[in-house]
Amino acid sequence: MSETLKGALIIGQSGGPSSVINASAYGVIRTALDAGEITKVYGANHGIKGVLNDKLLCMDEEDRAELDRLPYTPSSALGSCRYKIKDPDVDDTDYKRILEIFKKYDVRYFCYNGGNDSMDTCNKISKYMKKVGYDCRVMGVPKTIDNDLFGTDHCPGYASAAKYIATSVMEVARDAQVYDTGMITVIECMGRHAGWLTAAAALANEKEHCVDFVYLPEVDFDMDKFIADVSECYKKNGNCIVAVSEGVHYADGSFVSEAKTAATDGFGHAQLGGLAATLANIMKEKTGAKVRGIELSLLQRCAAHCASLTDIEESFMSGKTAVEEMLKGTTDKMVGFECSRENGYECKAKLFDLADVANFEKKFPREWINAEGNNVNSDFAKYALPLIQGETKLEKEDGMPRFARLKKVFAE
Amino acid sequence: MSETLKGALIIGQSGGPSSVINASAYGVIRTALDAGEITKVYGANHGIKGVLNDKLLCMDEEDRAELDRLPYTPSSALGSCRYKIKDPDVDDTDYKRILEIFKKYDVRYFCYNGGNDSMDTCNKISKYMKKVGYDCRVMGVPKTIDNDLFGTDHCPGYASAAKYIATSVMEVARDAQVYDTGMITVIECMGRHAGWLTAAAALANEKEHCVDFVYLPEVDFDMDKFIADVSECYKKNGNCIVAVSEGVHYADGSFVSEAKTAATDGFGHAQLGGLAATLANIMKEKTGAKVRGIELSLLQRCAAHCASLTDIEESFMSGKTAVEEMLKGTTDKMVGFECSRENGYECKAKLFDLADVANFEKKFPREWINAEGNNVNSDFAKYALPLIQGETKLEKEDGMPRFARLKKVFAE
User: Fold this and answer.
1) Whole-structure pTM value
2) Buried b (16+ CB within 10 A) or exposed e, B330-345
3) Contact B90/A at CB under 8 A
4) Is-contact A345 A386, C-beta < 8 A?
C-alpha cells in the first residue's frame, strides 16, 4: 500500500471520439468525485491543450443528472485535440507548462482518455514528472474504435462501432435484395491500418447471409482478384455485398483510395468520391450491374443510439479502475482488458505499461482471415460477438436522443 | 353495405423500400388472414411482376411468429419491383395476364403497397377490372420515405427515415464539434424532388443547435449564396453543419450533383463522389476549413433499428384499414391519414381517390422555408415531431436485429 496522496485530478480526452468515450470519462469523474483523497476534479478542455492553455472545467459544478447521461453521450464531452507533445529531451517547454499548471491546481492525478498517441502523451508526462520529482500519478484510459491498442483484449469504443456496422450491414443487405434485378453494394468502413472495424461487417452473417466479401488492410489488395471475386458472385447470385476497409492498399503500400486508376477516370485523376464509390463504379463498368457505394463515414464512430451496453459498461469500468488504482499508488499504466470466452464471456480490468502501448499497433490476426484473403473466419465472431451484446440505455426526448448537456464552468 | 365477396387477396409491394413498409403489409396480411370472406392470402413476389409471372407466395404457410416480426423488418419482405404498367388503351397485354391470374386464384381483393407509381398501377388495374366486369376490390396502401403523396397528411415510412436523419445529425453534430479547430460538415439526404427528408435534419435543432443551414429542392440553389452562407457561419462560429437534399438544382433545373463546376474539378468532369463530397470540397477550397461530406445513402430508408413506433403503428393501421374497407365494399382508394395537432396529436385513416394520388406530387410548403431559402421554420417541427415519437420494438438476437425470416412458399 502506498501512502495517501491528497490533490486534484485532471481528466483529458484526445484523438478521434467514439460512442462511449464519455462512459470512460464518467468512470473517472464519478469515482474521483466520490473519493475523499481527490480534492477537486477537473476536465481538460480539448485534451492536453486545455492543460497548456489553463482551460480547466470544474466537474463538481455540473448537475449530477447531466453527468449521469455521459455514458450514453457520443463524442468527447470535454473536447478533444490532436496535439502531439514533443519529446522532452528535444523541447521541454510543454512539460514545464504542464508542471506549472499541475502545481497551480495542486494536481496529483492525471488520466488521459484516448488511443496510441494519448498513451504516448501519458507516458511522457509521467516520466517527466518522475524526473523532476513532482509526486503525481498518471493513468491511461484507452479509447479507440480502431481496436488497435497493444496488449488489451479489445478497446473501449470498438464494440459500439462494430455493433453499428453489423446492424447497418444487415439493414442494407435487406434493402439490396429487394429487387429481382440484383445489385453490387460496396460498404466502406473506417480503419486506415487495421481491419477490425471492417471485419465487424461479417458479424451480420451470423444468422443470415449478408456480406459476400470482406477486404482488410492486413492483406494486400489485388484489383484483378477483387473484380474476379465480385463478378463471379454477382453472376452466380445476381447480387453481391462487399465490405472494404478505407485502408486497403496495393502490395506497394499505396492506398487503393488514392490510386489513379484508368478504370475510374480516363484522365488519371484521383477520385474525390471515396473508396466505396470508386470500387462500385469499377464493378459497374465490369459487370453492367446496378451498384451502390456506401461510406459509413463518421456515423460509425458517433452512433450512440446503437451503442453496445457491454462496451458502455466496460468503458466505465476502465475509467473507474484507473482512479481506484491511482488511489492505491499505481502510476504509469493503461487500464485495458483481459477476457475469457471459455465458459461464457468474462472481462476483467488489466494494467499495461504505457510505454508498451504507446509504441505498438495491434493488427487483425492473419489467421482469422481466410486463405483467399477476402473474408474472415469464425474465430473472429467468437471474439467479437460477446462485445456487442446489450442495448444502450440512452434516454429519448421528443423521439430523439437526450445527450448530456454540460455547463462547462472554467476554473479561475 | 355491399354484399359479401368471397375470394383470395393479393398484396404486392413496389418501388423503393422503407423501414416500415412491412408494417403496412402486415396490416393487410394479418387482417386478411383473420377475415372469413378472404379465402386465401397471397403475397406477390416482387410486386406486380410476381402477378404477371405467376409467382405468388402463400402467406398462410408462414409461421405466425415470423409474420409478427414483419412490422419491425425493413425493406419489402415480399420483394419489390420498378415495373411501370402500360396504359391499357395502348397495350392491354399485362392487364389480360393479370385478369387471367386473378381468375386462376379467384382473387377478389388486391392491395398494392407503394408510392405514386404504385397508386397509378392500382388505379389502372381497378379501372380495367371494372371495364371487363370482373368483380374485384382494389386498394392502395401508401409507402414512401419521400413523403410526397398527394392528400394524405404524411406517408408511412417518412417518419422513420426522418427520425434516423434527425438522430444521425445530432450524433454527427457532437462529433463535428469535438476539436477546437472547427469543421464544415455537409450531410446529404435523399429527396430528388421534395425536401421533406432533408428538412428532418432541422428536427435535431429542437433541443440543441446542430444544423446551421438546410437546402431543399423547393428553392433554386445559388452556389454563390451557399458559399457566402457557409463561409460567414464558419468564420463566426468556427464550425458549420449543412443539410442538403440530393435534389437541389440551379434555377435552370440542372441538378447541382450533376453540374460540371470548375471549382470541383479543373478539367470540368462531373464528379462521381456525390453532392456532399462535392460541396464539402468547394467549401474546403473557399475557406481552407477541414471538411466532411456525409451521404446518408440507403441507410436512411432501411435503418429499422431506429424506426418510429408511431410510424410503425400508423403503417399497420393503413394496411388494416385497406382490408376492412374492401370487406365493406370500398374500392379504388388509397388509405392515407388525416391528422390533428391541436390538442395533442391524433391520426385517423382517410380514403383518397387513387386517380388523384397517382398524378400529383406533394412538395415541401414554401411557407415553411425561411425567406432566405436556407432553412425551415418552426411550422415544420410542429408538423413532423409527433410523427417520430416512440421506439421500435425490434427484437435483438446476439446483439443484432432479429428480422422476420419468411419461408416464401409459392402457390402451385
Assistant:
1) 0.96
2) bbbbbbbbebeeeeee
3) no
4) yes
